[in-house]
Amino acid sequence: MILTVTPNPSLDRTYELPRLDRGEVVRATGERVDPGGKGVNVSRAVTAAGRRTVAVLPLGGAPGALVADLLDAQGIEVAPVPIAGATRSNIALAEADGVLTKINAPGPELTAAERELLLDTVRRQSHDADWIACCGSLPRSLAPSWYADLVARAHTAGVRIALDTSGPALLQALRERPDVVKPNAEELAEAVGRPLGTVGDAVKAAEELRELGAGAVLASLGADGQLLVDDAGTWYGNARVDAVRSNVGAGDSSLAGFLVAGGVGPAALASAVAHGAAAVRLPGSVMPVPGDLDPAAVTVTAEVPLDRALREPAS
């Protein structure tokens, strides 16, 4: 079972547009409403892959109730933490050429009692977990050290932790040695304090995160593929994608693919790449089912193209 923790979930509305013209009335060609937040997306992807998951998340107000209903309709077990504030609502504008514009609300503040209940719910739900995936931004009331505390508690309970966050929350959590961290290129660049222009730059940054405490680094490089750096070595994976429809949740789908394949080694990286590639071919934040995957389009190698320039350099 994969337990996910999403401290700042959302209700996500995605509009598909032919083109975004600022200041004009734009008519959407498609609309979706999905439960959102990185951990929520991981749970949705794990469920789509046919595995059990439990999603821990604070929920409040009408948006929170709708998030719970949508997850229940998808067969996802929810361990809700009731809060007084309303769950945030986010908007994504997906243009026909693949450009995505996101508008993310800040989210509610949690009271001291709600913060403690969130930690206690994770503790109670983690007994049967093979992995805990802690994902996304923190609400305004949670200190950057909150993830570090959660990692320490999970390790005390003997559960492996995968962490997908950024900024001070990531750096502080590294001291507690999370088993896997999953930054994208921008988050890698932010963590090491310098721009990344090549795959080799990303490898070096990932190695530095391991020196700071990460057991393994699964790095998403967008159209340039993914990296896995761990005790056994470094692997590079990519996949052929003919057309990108939406990259919302693609990184979360990759993390789910990595964890359902065991969370270790090049086979898990291949699963991560396959899930991420499938996700970008789907609308909104739809998560791929096994039939959407194309393992034959995935390449994983230990011969990392260090000099390859990133098509989207990270600054």
UniProtKB/TrEMBL annotation:
Pfam families given in the database record: PfkB
Q: Where are the transmembrane segments?
A: none
- The segment(s) forming the Carbohydrate kinase PfkB domain are 14-286
Sorted alphabetically, the keyword list is:
ATP-binding, Kinase, Nucleotide-binding, Transferase
Taxonomically, the superkingdom here is Bacteria
> Per the UniProt record, which EC number(s) apply here?
2.7.1.56
Q: Which InterPro entries match?
A: 1-PFruKinase (IPR022463), PfkB_dom (IPR011611), Ribokinase-like (IPR029056), Tagatose/fructose_Pkinase (IPR017583)
* Coiled coil segments of this chain: none
Gene Ontology MF terms: 1-phosphofructokinase activity
Q: Which family does it belong to?
A: Belongs to the carbohydrate kinase PfkB family.
Protein name per its UniProtKB record: 1-phosphofructokinase
Q: Which source organism? A: Streptomyces olivaceus
Lineage at the top is: Bacteria, Bacillati, Actinomycetota, Actinomycetes, Kitasatosporales
Point out the gene that encodes the protein.
pfkB
